[in-house]
Amino acid sequence: MRGRGARNVSRAIALVRARVDSPMETRLRLLCVLAGLPEPEPGAEIHDEHGQWIATADLRYDKERIALEYDGDLHRTSKRKWRHDVAAREELRARGWIVLAVTADDIFVRPHRTLARIHDALVARRHPAVPITLDPAWRDYFRVRGYLSDEW
Predict the structure, then answer these.
(1) What's 40's DSSP letter?
(2) Which of 21, 31, 93, 147 has the most CB atoms at less than 10 Å from its CB?
(3) Whole domain around residue 66: which residue ranges?
């Protein structure tokens, strides 16, 4: 690919993943990747020991049994969706999963705290500790009106 913007297009294509339900789930995944954490798997089904479906995590670290769940506006406007997600998260926790809920503010306003929560969960599950190094260039991927952060 050549021409104006080709480098940005190539970089963006390399970051695209299937099974993502929302731009915010993508931003959460990219926040992890751009900070040097392992890349969580998007849209991952979780099954019990008999192969029965339990839940589909927005993002997961399967080996460590950690699910990252983005809570968007749908949780405020749909009681049914909210109840479904609460039940699924409780089922996962009962089966030994760590479930971390993340909101837009956790991504845009408190990214370092969010990364620390994810890092701490990984370390608690014996994943090797890695330094969190969030390059200032990460903001280029997160331009959304209405969000400002003192951390930026």
Answers:
(1) P
(2) 31
(3) 20-141
Measured between alpha carbons, how far is 20 from 29 in angstroms, rounded to an integer?
10
Nearest to 138 by CA among 119, 129, 151, 126: 151
Region class of 51: left (phi > 0), else alpha (psi between -120 and 50), else beta: left
CATH number at 48 reads 3.40.960.10
Whole-number Å distance between alpha carbons of 143 and 108: 9
Each residue's pLDDT, cut to its tens digit, for the chain (152 residues) gives 566 654 554 555 455 555 566 788 989 999 999 999 999 999 889 999 999 999 999 999 999 999 999 998 776 788 888 899 999 999 999 999 999 999 999 998 899 999 999 999 999 998 888 888 887 777 777 766 656 544 44
Give dist(CA 99, CA 66) in Å, integer: 6
CA atoms of 26 and 13, how far apart (whole Å): 13
Strands 98-102 and 53-61: unpaired
Dist. CA 63–CA 127, nearest whole Å:
9
